[in-house]
């Protein structure tokens, strides 16, 4: 672009007339670039702005409230109602004023979105017209962001083509997606995928969606769904929305088993809380998608991979974030009943007995859609999956939670705590699911990561109610509390009741979503104590290596002198994330002091000791590990018996 074209398109009326044509608007810039793309494809990551803002040195940050006040002062008069009718020329003048005033402020798109979301819009028709003018004619990103924020509140289907075009610009994509989410979810998902989808399979699907090639979309989708178990949760949701997966499931032919199995994998990934919020809660089609999947589930041949998919969906419906969806009376329960009936059939039960399933198909559809499931030669993974399925097979079909939920506050069984182990091929491991009145607490109250592991909440006795109030951290953000916070509650005994109150969540950053106030929960003390004792003594979910790790951790808690003699302390004990049959013992130890150095001045080091699960009883393996810790300095473990030292 020439130098004159790089100047702002909206200039003061007093400015001298440009010597050449005014700059293209950002919309026209994006449209021109897109038309030049071969086949109308969407470039990965989008296009750069024609004149990106300068990267200035970091200066003193303006307080958030001051930025909001300045933006409100600029925007409020221009979006207010008027006693006289206003024309397109009026919208153009107001857009020009916004453009000029924003140039004087140091603001970001997030500031604009937040302020516009709070602005009173007395004349919505005028605000909509102003938003359209800004998105179509603005040449500065912040002015266009104002238009996008107005259309986030007031946009209509006719705005979709313009928004989709603007969404191809890197700096505007997130704001465009937010506006489209309120108008056209499939287009919003396509814009999002155009920027963030990685890998040849996903890119091929995005290209097919961009040009509207439906036959190609179905073929490309099948390839993506085979690997759906390992995609990121938001990617899974956006794929489901972009292809309208609930409709595809209802329309697909009876032999399209890959689509059915892939939909189950997508549902599982959308429900994950391992990294952040559960994406399933932001998916408008979620209930319809669960129901469409359940209707088609009976078409899947009985294979171990299909059993794992069905059981994973059932566990999610039973106690996962999906319980928070707007189900209506009996709909979720009906899906669980259907899955229970299906998995109770002899051909499916035979899978858990290690027997070949009678009547399972041998054609290409029955085994080629295993996706992220075990492949040839992965006997150990198959063994883990069978053992996992045996342990978890009945958990999602319990009815005591349903009864407690229906009884509500009058019930003595309001609280339920379940350790839920997920499919061994998933990146997640174990979740402690805390249900109150049948609803999962952590996804509803926090939504930035799962509850802590059972070892932290149960084995330590942290959830017990004692005479002294105790603050307990129930969950921590995936990125640590110092970054995005944690969920704390104070547990106290009050006569014949146990009370959860005084919730503490660090103030979230400015958000378009308000934080919900958490109530005080009161439980009958006898029922509460019984539930905590049951959960603490429930080992049915564990596998041998995890059971061994829990016993080692308990031994170190009961006998702290085992490590203090070595000037060491336990840091973390569990199973290795990549190999669940490997026990991992992490210790924090003082290094041996140098000559003339005081012991307290010696630096800390971390020792990671890996213990393979060798078939011995967990009690015997744990006793041997504790005996070694009692007799051999753990600082010598590096390089032997799986030991590894890491400097602090």
What attributes does this structure have?
28 helices, 4-stranded antiparallel beta sheet, 648 residues, disordered C terminus, 46% helix, globular, 11 strands, alpha+beta
Please outline the helices and strands.
Blueprint: H1 26-35, H2 64-79, H3 88-103, H4 109-118, H5 124-137, H6 141-154, H7 160-166, H8 173-181, H9 185-196, H10 200-210, H11 214-226, H12 233-242, H13 245-251, H14 257-270, H15 286-296, H16 304-319, H17 331-343, H18 346-352, H19 364-367, H20 379-392, H21 400-407, E1 415-421, E2 430-436, E3 439-440, H22 441-445, H23 454-459, E4 470-476, H24 481-484, E5 486-494, E6 497-504, E7 521-524, H25 525-536, H26 544-558, H27 561-564, E8 568-575, E9 582-590, E10 604-612, H28 618-631, E11 643-647
Antiparallel strand pairs: 1-2, 2-3, 4-5, 5-6, 6-7, 8-9, 9-10, 10-11
Protein model, in words:
Helix content is 46%, strand content 12%. Helix 26 (544-558) crosses helix 28. The model is unreliable at 1-21, 356-368, 370-377, 509-513 and 639-648 (pLDDT under 50). It contains 28 helices and eleven strands. The protein is an alpha+beta fold.
Q: DSSP helix count?
A: 28
Q: What is the typical, i.e. mean, pLDDT?
A: 84
| Percent of residues in beta strands | 5-15%
Instruction: State the end-to-end CA separation.
Output: 53 Å
Classify the secondary structure makeup into a structural class.
alpha+beta
Round the Cα radius of gyration to an integer and report it: 29 Å
Number of strands: 11
Pick out the low-confidence regions: 1-21, 356-368, 370-377, 509-513, 639-648
Main sheet characteristics: 4 strands, antiparallel
Shape descriptor? globular
Helical content, roughly? 40-55%
Strand arrangement, major sheet: 4-5-6-7
């Amino acid at each position: 672009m020439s130098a004159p074209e790089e100047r702002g398109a909206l200039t003061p009326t007093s400015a001298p007339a440009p010597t050449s044509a005014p700059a293209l608007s950002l919309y026209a810039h994006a449209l021109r670039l897109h038309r030049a793309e071969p086949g109308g494809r969407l470039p990965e990551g989008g296009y750069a702005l024609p004149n990106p803002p300068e990267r200035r040195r970091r200066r003193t940050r303006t307080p958030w409230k001051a930025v909001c006040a300045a933006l409100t002062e600029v925007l409020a008069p221009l979006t207010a109602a008027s006693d006289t009718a206003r024309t397109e020329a009026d919208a153009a003048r107001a857009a020009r004023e916004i453009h000029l005033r924003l140039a004087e402020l140091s603001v970001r798109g997030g500031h604009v979105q937040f302020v516009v979301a709070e602005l009173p819009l007395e004349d919505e028709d005028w605000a909509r017209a102003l938003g359209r003018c800004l998105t179509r004619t603005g040449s500065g990103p912040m002015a266009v962001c104002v238009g996008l924020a107005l259309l986030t509140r007031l946009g209509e289907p006719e705005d979709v083509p313009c928004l989709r075009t603007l969404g191809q610009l890197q700096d505007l994509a997130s704001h465009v997606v937010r506006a489209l989410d309120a108008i056209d979810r499939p287009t919003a998902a396509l814009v999002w995928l155009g920027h963030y989808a990685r890998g040849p399979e996903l890119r091929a699907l995005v290209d097919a969606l961009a040009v509207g090639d439906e036959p190609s979309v179905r073929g490309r989708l099948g390839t993506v769904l085979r690997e759906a178990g390992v995609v990121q949760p938001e990617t899974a949701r956006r794929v489901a929305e972009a292809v309208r997966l609930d409709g595809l499931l209802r329309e697909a032919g009876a032999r399209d088993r890959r689509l059915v199995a892939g939909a189950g994998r997508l549902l599982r990934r959308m429900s994950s809380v391992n990294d952040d919020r559960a994406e399933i809660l932001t998916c408008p089609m979620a209930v319809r998608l669960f129901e469409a999947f359940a209707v088609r589930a009976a078409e899947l041949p009985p294979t171990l991979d299909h059993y794992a998919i069905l059981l994973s969906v059932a566990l999610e419906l039973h106690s996962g974030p999906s319980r928070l969806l707007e189900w209506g009376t009996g709909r979720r329960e009906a899906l669980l009943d259907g899955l229970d009936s299906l998995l109770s059939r002899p051909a499916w039960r035979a899978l858990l007995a290690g027997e070949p399933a009678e009547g399972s198909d041998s054609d290409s559809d029955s085994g080629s859609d295993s996706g992220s499931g075990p492949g040839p030669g992965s006997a150990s993974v198959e063994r883990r999956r069978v053992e996992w399925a045996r342990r978890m097979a009945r958990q999602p079909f319990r009815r005591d939670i349903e009864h407690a939920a229906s009884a509500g506050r009058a019930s003595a069984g309001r609280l339920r705590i379940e350790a839920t182990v997920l499919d061994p091929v998933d990146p997640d491991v174990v979740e402690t699911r805390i249900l109150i009145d049948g609803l999962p607490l952590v996804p509803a109250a926090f939504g930035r990561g799962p509850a802590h592991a059972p070892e932290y909440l149960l084995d330590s006795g942290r959830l017990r109610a004692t005479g002294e109030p105790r603050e307990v951290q129930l969950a921590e953000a995936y990125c640590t509390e110092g970054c995005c916070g944690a969920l704390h509650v104070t547990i106290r005994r009050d006569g014949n009741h146990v009370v959860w109150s005084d919730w503490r969540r660090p103030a979230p950053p400015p958000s378009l979503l308000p934080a919900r106030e958490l109530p005080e929960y009161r439980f009958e003390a006898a029922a509460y104590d019984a539930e905590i004792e049951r959960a603490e003594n429930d080992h049915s979910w564990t596998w041998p290596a995890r059971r061994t790790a829990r016993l080692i951790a308990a031994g170190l808690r009961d006998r702290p002198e085992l490590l203090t003699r070595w000037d060491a302390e336990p840091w973390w004990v569990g199973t290795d994330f990549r190999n669940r049959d490997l026990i991992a013992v992490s210790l924090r130890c003082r290094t041996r002091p140098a000559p003339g150095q005081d012991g307290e001045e010696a630096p800390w080091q971390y020792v990671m000791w890996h213990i393979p699960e060798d078939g011995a009883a967990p009690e015997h393996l744990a006793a041997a590990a504790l005996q070694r810790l009692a007799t051999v300095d753990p600082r010598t473990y590096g390089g032997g018996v799986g030991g590894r030292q890491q400097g602090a």
